User: What shape does this take?
Amino acid sequence: MVPGIRVKVPFANRQLIGVLIEVTETTDVPVNKLKPALEILDSTPPLPAHLLKLARWSASYYQHPAGEALSQALPVLLRKGKRITISRR
Assistant: This one.
């Protein structure tokens, strides 16, 4: 998995679209608090690495949740979990 891909995740009693921001081997979060992603929506990130970095920086700088900043960087249909389609002409 590559940072920047979208994943469908369980959140309370619903499913939301999230953006993977980091892959790590260890965590301070207790194992019983971790939940697996329900679905990986992308094979490659829909945002270039520099825009992912900018969204994370802006969230930190403006003290705003990273998920909100990343969500706003995506087009509306991608925020809703739609698949990326590439038309070839």
About this structure: The beta strands are 6-11, 14-19, 39-40. The helical segments are 49-61, 66-73, 76-79.
